[in-house]
Amino acid sequence: MDDARSASPRIHGAIAHDIGVEIVCGLRKPGDVFGGEIEASEALGISRTAYREAIRILAAKGLVESRPKAGTRVTARHRWNLLDPDVLAWTFEGEPNPEFIQDLFELRSVIEPAAAEFAARRRNQVHLDDMRSALDDMERLGLADSEGRAADQRFHRAILAAAGNEALAVLASSVGAAVSWTTKYKQRNRALPRDPLPDHVLVYEGILAGDAAAARQAMTQLLHLALADMDLPPRM
Amino acid sequence: MDDARSASPRIHGAIAHDIGVEIVCGLRKPGDVFGGEIEASEALGISRTAYREAIRILAAKGLVESRPKAGTRVTARHRWNLLDPDVLAWTFEGEPNPEFIQDLFELRSVIEPAAAEFAARRRNQVHLDDMRSALDDMERLGLADSEGRAADQRFHRAILAAAGNEALAVLASSVGAAVSWTTKYKQRNRALPRDPLPDHVLVYEGILAGDAAAARQAMTQLLHLALADMDLPPRM
DNA sequence: TCAGCAAAATAACTCAGACATAATAGGCCA
DNA sequence: TGGCCTATTATGTCTGAGTTATTTTGCTGA
């Protein structure tokens, strides 16, 4: 009937997805209690097994908490793993809170310049080759093309690899994906205020030269450009 | 017998914990396949239900992946949610990779100065009062005392609250907790190279004055001090 | 009236066994 | 050799029963 589901998620995954979206979208608020397993599961038309596994997934991401007798309820928002890839994706399926989007952009503006700085210090030839290659593809294809945007992401991934910090890499990867949801969401129907390629090249040159300060500065500049593409009101 | 478990984890939680620790400690390597559910569950002396729910938890954190016929296997490390609070805690139960610890310190040295900077711009009186109060407790109790260290954490939490960035806050909270595991792990049996309180006061004064650059600088200084307490070899 | 304790109620939790589904492996045929 | 088709197998799903832990209720006694 209403199978707006994606490829082939098993039932528990699909239910976890659905309830997860309901939570992050605010349809279910912190403190809200789920009906008992039997009622809730048969309300969804699934078995208790599948329902329970879905709840386990949500609990693993800090979205719900279940205790005997007390029942299962949505946890306080500060307990949520907001940067979990799934939670992030679910958040951007609905219409995410503008303030949260700002938070993510801000977080990226903290992470990526630092990554560029580290990359300038620790890059090796392979990293530089990857960046150069991605840059060439970007120039050849342009950012209007989807492959061109893939090249853009390759460029950023190469920088993260060069930064040599695993924790930073997984974090930036999640945040970067979320931010790209946003830009895709807005369909980038108008031209960018300025060609972004020169800024990318500046970042690359800074890293190539091993100039940490220059790389950081160039990356900051690049992100400001991306931010200008959004119509988010500037924060203080 | 071997009940090093915390409060009252249900079976599935306990098993998820145990297997999770085995994975992050490298006892089970990426690509390793788990035996079939029936064998694995009865090897652990539990039912298939509980075993499956444990696997669901691990899958939600990106540590394992299971597909029909192919079986359940440990995923590649770059897929792991390294910053998930549980994964972080499990990592620090074993003897974590020194490089990863360095990564976390480095990540904190990226996040917290930025948080201090934002806090200097956005703090209100309540935030300032919280910081001041925490600072007073720290002075009164000292960092040798456990309550004194709790005050230290309150200080940092107040800064994060003042920074007004939810994503930054949850992230810093996880990383900060992990870093504190490390320092507790080392039992801080020797005196700090310098009294950390003056540095804390400098951070506070920067935020109080609304001087973003000063707050950032002071926080960076503070973290360098904490880093010096560890015996990690300095990176380039 | 209230503090403390015991019993009942209720929800999640665990177990066992069966069947369904899907992806792989291997054989079969052209 | 190449592609298709079947058999295998592990995960996925369902059902129903029984267990456990926590909250709530209600009782008792001070």
TrEMBL record, chains A, B:
Pfam families from the UniProt entry: FCD, GntR
CDD domains: WHTH_GntR
Acyltransferase listed as a keyword: no
Keyword Coiled coil: no
Membrane-crossing residue ranges in chain numbering: none
Limits of the HTH gntR-type domain: 9-77
InterPro entries for this protein: GntR_C, TF_FadR/GntR_C, Tscrpt_reg_HTH_GntR, WH-like_DNA-bd_sf, WH_DNA-bd_sf
Domain of life, per lineage: Bacteria
Keywords noted in UniProt: DNA-binding, Transcription, Transcription regulation
GO MF, one example: DNA binding
PANTHER family hit by this protein: GNTR FAMILY REGULATORY PROTEIN, TRANSCRIPTIONAL REGULATOR, GNTR FAMILY
Descriptive protein name: GntR family transcriptional regulator
Source species: Blastomonas natatoria
Classification lineage: Bacteria, Pseudomonadati, Pseudomonadota, Alphaproteobacteria, Sphingomonadales
